[in-house]
Amino acid sequence: MSPTTTIASVPALAEVEREAKGCTRCPLAQGRTQVVFGVGSSSADLMFVGEAPGQQEDLQGEPFVGRSGQLLDRMVLEEMGLTRDRFYIANTVKCRPPGNRDPQPVEIAACHPWLETQVDLIDPKVVVTLGNFAAKLLLGTTEGITRLRGRAYPYRGGVLVPTFHPAAILRGGGDLAAQMRADLVRAKQYLTGDGERP
Ligand code: URA
Hints:
By secondary structure, the protein is of the alpha/beta class.
């Protein structure tokens, strides 16, 4: 990527983030401490998309800073050799649903333009979705994650690799963890240009 492209993309994403911080498109705005827009490199080749902020994320303003995030960071480091400064991470819904309930369809739809703008500006080679909500939204399907995972899909000029949400690994243990690790290895192959075109 040329220096001009890098410099141009940083203010654009920061500007969108500033706008998003005042978002009142859905009722989640009323209960939030702050909008959890996303963090990481704005020129990253890799982007993770989770579900919604939890309590810690709502307080700290950063996605995946709780137990799920710690597990994700560890698995990404072990399977892909990457730390947070090398990717971008955001959620399907940018404000915490009360009591950590599932995000509602109307909230997901209201927030979708923010996510689409993030993907368009960052323009990653590989998007890894974590859990059902992000995979279903971005792939436009009602199919569940267990059926969707295990392969890559074309997505906005790059590829999308669906995998489990790390919270499912914390609940479900070994077998799911092994599948998630395999998905991360698959994502790495696409990052390095070794993956077959889906
Ligand atoms: N789970 C998510 O999906 N996103 C977060 O930011 C934290 C937990």
